[in-house]
């Protein structure tokens, strides 16, 4: 719920636990509870953001700003436009500085899935930013 507005967190957490309680019989492996619960929370956050897309107007005049700031905004917009799975793993890697195993533990994904999401996410990010180099 780290990406949700603070005022909405209590309601979202409540929804996550109600959903988990209702779907508890679908949990096949009790040892996977943490990942299963994280998946429910991630899905609930995605649903929340789909329903309430707030838009922020960018100033029309960007010529007076630092070019680095403009590039950072472009990169942020490109990351925001990626599919959720890629966006989440890229943010955890590039912003939070987490390693692949740390991302897997946080998201409940396998190490292989994290590697694939990072690779594909970086490829799409490069394409969106107009940088089609093949090295990372």
Could you walk me through the main structural features you see in this protein, from its secondary elements to its overall organization?
This protein has 136 residues and is an all-alpha fold. It folds into two domains: 6-51; 67-128, Winged helix-like DNA-binding domain superfamily/Winged helix DNA-binding domain (Arc Repressor Mutant, subunit A, Orthogonal Bundle). Helices cover 65% and strands 0% of the residues. The protein is built from six helices and no strands. The protein has helices at 6-22, 33-51, 67-80, 84-95, 100-107, 111-128. It is globular, with a radius of gyration of 17 Å. It starts with 5 loop residues before the first helix and ends in an 8-residue tail after the last helix. The relative contact order is 0.10. The model has no long low-confidence stretch (mean pLDDT 77).
């Amino acid at each position: 719920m780290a990406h949700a507005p603070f005022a909405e967190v209590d309601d979202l957490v409540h929804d996550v636990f109600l959903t988990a309680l209702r779907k508890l019989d679908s949990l096949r492996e009790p040892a996977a509870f943490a990942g299963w619960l994280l998946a429910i929370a991630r899905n609930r956050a995605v649903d929340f953001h789909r329903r309430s897309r707030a838009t922020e107007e960018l100033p029309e005049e960007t010529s007076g700003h630092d070019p680095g700031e403009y590039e950072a905004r472009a990169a942020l917009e490109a990351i925001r436009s990626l599919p959720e799975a890629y966006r989440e793993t890229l943010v955890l890697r590039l912003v939070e500085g987490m390693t692949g195993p740390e991302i897997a533990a946080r998201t409940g994904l396998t190490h292989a899935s994290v590697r694939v999401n990072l690779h594909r996410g970086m490829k799409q990010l490069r394409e969106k930013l107009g940088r089609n180099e093949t090295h990372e």
